[in-house]
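fyi for ur records
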Amino acid sequence: MSAPATPREIFGKLTGLISAGRWSELPGLYAEDAEVEIVFSPVPPRRVHGRAELRKRFEALEASDAIRLRAENIRVHETADPEVVIAEFDYEGLYPATGRTFRTANIQVLRVREGLIIETRDYHDHLAFAAADGRASELLAALDRRG
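which gave:
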């Protein structure tokens, strides 16, 4: 019996699947009760709980071919906690519907237990995503309504 994958290895699998557009395979990396916090998300949800909810989100992305991402310049930092890594990386992105490309820096804090992601804190530049998708004005209007 082999040892479970390390947090560094799981992060590598995660970015590899995202970069390959294999969204429907991503839920298998997460624990049943995984918690994903999208810290800087300007609109809800800021938390996604559980593999089932993540599966719905990932399957919708794959079915729509709404976005293509490629992780680059990946730097993974070990921490004093053996379950946790902090990853810095860039996304090269494309929205096929608009043809717009973008590049944005990201940070993800990933907690892995027994080879499955149990928690992430994701720090992404959502305005860069929205601008490339042609939705920046909608995003700003939503923020104005919240204020």
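The first helix runs from residue 7 to 19. thats all i got for now
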